[in-house]
Structure formats: C-alpha cells, structure tokens
Amino acid sequence: MSAEAEMRPPIGLLAELSYRCPLHCPYCSNPVALGDHRRELTGEQWCRVLTEARELGVLQLHLSGGEPLTRRDLPELVRHARRVGLYSNLVTSGVGLTDRRLAALVEAGLDHVQLSVQDSAAERSDRIAGTRSFERKRAAARAVKRAGLPLTVNVVLHRHNADRVAELAELAVRWGADRLELAHTQYYGWAALNQARLLPAREQVERSRAAARDAAERHGDRLGIVYVVPDLYEDRPKPCMHGWGRRHLVVRPNGDVLPCTAAGEIPGLPIENVLGTPLAEIWFSSESFNRFRGTDWMPDPCRGCPLREVDFGGCRCQALRLLGDASATDPVCALSPHHSVVTRLVEQAQAAQAGPDAASGPMVPRR
Amino acid sequence: MTGIGPRSRLRPRSGVRLVFDEVRGSHALLYPEGVLLINETAARVLGACTGESTVADLVAALDAEYDGVCAEEVLALLSRLVTARLLHVAEDGSPRAADQDRFEGDEDVR
C-alpha cells in the first residue's frame, strides 16, 4: 500500500518529558549520546503539543522519559491532557512518587501508573537500577493503590532476571498490581551497548515463557499478564510500532518528533521539531514519517510477502543496527537473506551463558 | 470462558473510560495502555454497564430501543470485554468460572 493510502490519525503519543533519571539501568532505551536532549520544552510548549496531538487524533498519552517525575510541572501537564481528552499513563521508576505528589496527579486527572521493577528482590533490583530504589518502588505501588488508580508493574527481562518470572508475578500480586508486563529487552540505546551481557540463552527464554504462562494460570483472576517475546529468538519480526507512522509518535524532551524512540539513529533521516512545525504537518507530510510508511518502500522479500501488512517488515532500527541498512528486511525474519546475523548473535549468547562469568560481567550503566 | 450469564452485573474496571472521539467520529474505550474504537451499539451496551442492572435487564432495554437485538451476541461482546479485563463482574452471586483467556501471550510486541 502506498504511504498516502496508509494515512490515518495516530492513536498514541509517547511524550519523553525529560531524559533525567535517578536510575541507571543498562538496558535503557534512551539515546546514549544525550547532547542536545538536555534541553527540555517548557510546560507551555508541552501543553501545545498535547492539544495538537489530540486534534490530530491521539487518545493515549504515555508520560515517559527518563523519569517524568523530574518535571515539577507534571500535574499541570496531566491536567491539560485530561482537559483536551487524552488518557494519561505515567511511566515511572516510582522514585519520587510520594502520596503527596500522587495526590496532585490524581486530582489533575491521571488515569494509570506503570511502575518499573528491575527484579523480584531488593538487592538484585537495586543492583540493576544502579541505585537504592526497590523500597521506594514498593512505597509508590502502595500509594497508587491507596489512590485507587490501576497499576501496571513493568519488568524488562534479560539474562539476569528472566529466571524469576514466577517471583515477579508473586510480587505484582503482593503489590496489588492489576497488570504485569514482562517485556524482554529490546536492543536499542544503552541496551545495544550491553547486548552481549543481557541477551538470554534460548533455554532461558523458553523457561521464562513457560513461567509466564504458569503465572497467568495461577494469578489470572487478579492479574493480567502481558509477555513480550525477545524478537531475536523468533523467526518472524515484530510489527514494530504497529507500522511506521501508522499508530504512534514520539516527542523527545527537546521537541524532536520521531516515528519511534530509536529512529533518531537513522542516518540521513531529517528530524522535525514541534517548535518549528505543526504536529499534524509532521505526521502527514514530513519525510521522516513517510520514509517507511505503507509498503511501497519495502525491499524483497517483504515486497511480495503475504505478511507485509502484518509485521510491516519488522523494525527499521534493528535492520540498521544489525545490517547497517534501515530499509532492509528486519534480519529477525527467517526469510531475510541476512538472517544468519541474528542466528550468530543468539549462538554467542548461548556460549556466553555457558561461560564462567556470564552473570557477573560489568555492564555499561546508563548515565 | 468468562462465566458471565444473564444475572451478572458488570461494570468497567478501574481506569477504563468510555469517550466519544470527535476526530474519528467514533466511540472509544480508553484503558491502561490501550484504545478500542467501538460502534454505536457497543457503546450503548457499555454505557449501560454501571454495575446496577443485570445483563438480562440490559438486553431487554436494548431490545426496546433497537430492532433485532440478539441476546447471545450481546453476551458474547460482554464476555470478550470481561476477558480483555475491561469489564469486571460485580459480586452478585453469579458463577465466576476460572478464566482461561487471560494470558495475552505474544501479541503485545512493540
């Protein structure tokens, strides 16, 4: 389908309010080179973005970062989001989410909290987070439930925690969560730097998948469980962002607008900014949002594939990272002529897991 | 199986909001991390799920308003929404069978 035929309004906006964060997770998807991203839009500018987003068709707002609570004006942004008709999700580490701050957000109209947890026990969770934070997360969960908001616990899975899915489900139940997201690491940003130390071996992936199914059976009456597979172990690619420029857009702290969080890495992709161009114009007309929209851009084997409107050719940023070409078929696909690149990565993970220091090697913590 | 029947009373789970989207000219159900665009009839059914009336009451009310209301179809819609954890079965003595469809599996790949 041509890009024009694919034109429809976006559903979701990921608002990366700030890249400041008290945590140092080695799998962070934020850009490794922060550079210009230290500059942040003002509250007034963000409110304009939210108004434009709703007028464009966005219904879901993900207030993310970094840590969105580093913005003191967060309640004003939530209030504005509610006023224009957006559903607001707070995506937080929980650090700083006291009863008092939460009360202000609830009063402003916050709909839902997604709380990250790094592992099922304090010491290991704090080690991955690079800071003492587990007890503050527990307190944050308690505050969210006291305030009567729905709570999602989100855990990024990797080699060092993927064997504790059952314990993580117990924790989610204990903390009163309504949903548990178990999402295998996606290797962009800091995670790409640490891939060799994070990628689980195949057996571990299978164990975690089985444990997630068990947990869903055991806790299904209290907890909705979403398990996001590690795509490197699949033979068909993920439908990244549900298609380029099709459902979602990302606005960075400085106002840059991207089709996905990692798209800033794609060389030669011109990035528009909300300060210079209306959001609707960026969504419908910009080169960046049209570059991989629809199916006309696709190479073989995607071009003639019956699944081309199911997986949209997979992930552009993964094709770039693994093949140096953002317009290639995602090599996760077994039909890709370069699928062996992925097979090799997985074999390396297998070998590393068998090695003596697999669990203790140093990772580069997010700064 | 979601174990709902004519005597069940349903209401939206916390964090679920029914809105009308002026941009698309469509009703929409907003919930944690998701959006469901729904048609007029589904919106009418959902709007009536306040935990007060039973599914049977709801079907009767719909029947009075529209032609050709099918109780099975309404029940199927409500079951799907319970399975998707958007509606909640209020504690009214209706049987609550174990829910086998809660595992959202491998669909949510981003």
TrEMBL record, chain A:
One of its GO terms (molecular function) is oxidoreductase activity. Binds 1 [4Fe-4S] cluster. The cluster is coordinated with 3 cysteines and an exchangeable S-adenosyl-L-methionine. Its EC number is 1.21.98.4. GO terms for biological process: pyrroloquinoline quinone biosynthetic process. It comes from the Bacteria. Its cofactor is [4Fe-4S] cluster. InterPro entries: 4Fe4S-binding_SPASM_dom (IPR023885), Aldolase_TIM (IPR013785), Elp3/MiaA/NifB-like_rSAM (IPR006638), PQQ_synth_PqqE_bac (IPR011843), PqqE-like (IPR017200), Radical_SAM_PqqE_MftC-like (IPR050377), rSAM (IPR007197), rSAM_sf (IPR058240). Keywords: 4Fe-4S, Iron, Iron-sulfur, Metal-binding, Oxidoreductase, PQQ biosynthesis, S-adenosyl-L-methionine. [4Fe-4S] cluster binds at residues 21, 25, 28. It catalyses: [PQQ precursor protein] + S-adenosyl-L-methionine = E-Y cross-linked-[PQQ precursor protein] + 5'-deoxyadenosine + L-methionine + H(+). Interacts with PqqD. The interaction is necessary for activity of PqqE. PANTHER family: PQQA PEPTIDE CYCLASE, RADICAL SAM DOMAIN PROTEIN. This is PqqA peptide cyclase. It comes from Thermomonospora echinospora. The lineage of its organism: Bacteria, Bacillati, Actinomycetota, Actinomycetes, Streptosporangiales. The gene is pqqE.
TrEMBL record, chain B:
GO terms for molecular function: quinone binding. InterPro entries: PQQD, PqqD_bac, PqqD_sf. It comes from the Bacteria. Pathway: Cofactor biosynthesis; pyrroloquinoline quinone biosynthesis. The keyword Oxidoreductase does not apply. GO terms for biological process: pyrroloquinoline quinone biosynthetic process. It holds the Pfam family PqqD. Keywords: PQQ biosynthesis. Monomer. Interacts with PqqE. This is Pyrroloquinoline quinone biosynthesis protein D.
